[in-house]
Amino acid sequence: MPRQTPLFRFRRRSPFILLTLLILWSFCIGWALSQAAQGQLPPTPPAIGTVDPTPPNYRVGEQLYVEHCGSCHVALPPAVMPTTTWRDL
Q1: Burial of 52 (0-12, 13-18, 19+ CB in 10 A)
Q2: Closest CA to 67 of 58, 56, 75, 59
Q3: pLDDT recorded at residue 27
Q4: pLDDT in tens, 16-32
Q5: Under the phi-then-psi rule, with left for phi > 0, alpha for psi from -120 to 50, and beta for the rest, what region is 86?
Q6: Are 86 and 61 contacting, i.e. CB atoms less than 8 angstroms apart?
Q7: Taking the complete model, does pTM exceed 0.70, yes or no?
Q8: E strand or H helix at 36
Q9: Terminal alpha carbon distance of the chain
Q10: Counting C-beta atoms within 10 Å of the first and last residue's C-beta, which end of the chain has fewer, N or C?
Q11: Closest C-alpha to 81, from 59, 51, 47
Q12: Residue 51 pLDDT
């Protein structure tokens, strides 16, 4: 009776090849996971300066207000609130 050969013949592979394949596979999986975890960052909105910029001729008054009134009160610079709010105050 003839000897039957198996369909898949397994040879003993070199441990170096298996280790190389394992390292390559781990590197690929790690890179893919880091890309997925990073995701898309939303764009940062442009920085808003002040609500109402202080005109140059009032800068000295603004500095005096912050220096003197800020010692006892919360010295809000004029740029914090709109002009209409300051008029109401």
Answers
A1: middle
A2: 75
A3: 96
A4: 888 999 999 999 999 99
A5: alpha
A6: no
A7: no
A8: helix 15-38
A9: 109
A10: N
A11: 51
A12: 62
CA distances from 38 to 28, 30, 31, 35 (A): 16, 12, 11, 5
Which two tokens mark 34?
């880091």
Map tokens 């800020």 to a residue: 70
Q: Which residue has the tokens 């939303």?
A: 42
Q: Which residue carries 């790690």 as its tokens?
A: 30
**Residue entry with tokens 């890179």:** 31
3-class secondary-structure state, position 86: helix
Tens digits of residue pLDDT in 22-75: 999 999 999 998 888 777 777 777 766 556 677 889 888 878 877 887 777 776
